[in-house]
Amino acid sequence: MSHVPTFTVRSQAELPGLVPYLLGYHPEQSLVALFLKADRRVAVAARVDLAAPMAQVVDAFRDVTDRTAAQTLVLVGYGNRDVAPTVTAASDALAAHLTVSQTLLVITDRYFCLECPCDATEGVSFDAKATATAAQSTVEGLVALPSRAALLALIDPDPAQHAAVAAAIAALRPASDGPETLRALLDRARDGHRLTVEQAARLAIC
Questions:
Q1: What angle in degrees, to the nearest 10, is found between the helix axes of 84-95 and 54-68?
Q2: pLDDT tens string for the chain (206 positions)?
Q3: Is 60 exposed, middle or buried (0-12, 13-18, 19+ CB in 10 A)?
Q4: Where are the strands (E) in the chain, listed by range?
């Protein structure tokens, strides 16, 4: 069973370095919400497209709040300066239903605080790889891929493996495996072990 690290948000400066590791990639044209518990621990991170209809954004994030019992959320927008009004509007819409503690806009290697009287309103330079949360993420074995497309590419089907499993399915005789054998195969896959072509074929026809 994989270990899921716990992150606690101690300062605003940590946020830009934390988000990519929570998502698994560096977001672009996105709205990301970090849902925090009362002790500032991150319960979960959620992302929607920056261009999504506002009602869809609110519904999506309210649903996550209901399921996680989070106390507050931090909203982080990713884009250029032109998207600041969109991020602020999303924060205002969410604030009618949820407690939004901070609203940030990240533009490459600078972040801006959009709704608070602090120094970050003029932009603060940061190095996502140099933050404490990035260091913790690396120690925990988490990675931040360069884009969402790069992350999705990891689950793209392998045509050769597809063909091999299809051939194995066609060659199989009627299933005679008992429930114990099938349960063992599922446990093996759940634990991160790669199934053989024959094992995958047996699971496919169960």
A1: 50
A2: 344 568 888 888 888 888 998 999 999 999 999 999 988 899 999 999 999 999 999 999 999 988 888 889 999 999 999 999 999 999 999 999 889 999 999 998 899 999 877 777 788 898 877 777 778 877 877 888 888 887 777 776 667 766 766 676 666 665 556 677 778 878 887 777 777 877 777 776 66
A3: middle
A4: 30-36, 42-49, 72-78, 100-107, 110-113, 124-125
Task: Specify the residue for token string 């996105």.
Answer: 30
Question: Which two structure tokens, joined as six digits, stand for 135?
Answer: 């260091």
65, with CB counted inside 10 A (0-12, 13-18, 19+), is: buried
> Quick one: angle between helices 159-171 and 197-204, nearest 10?
70
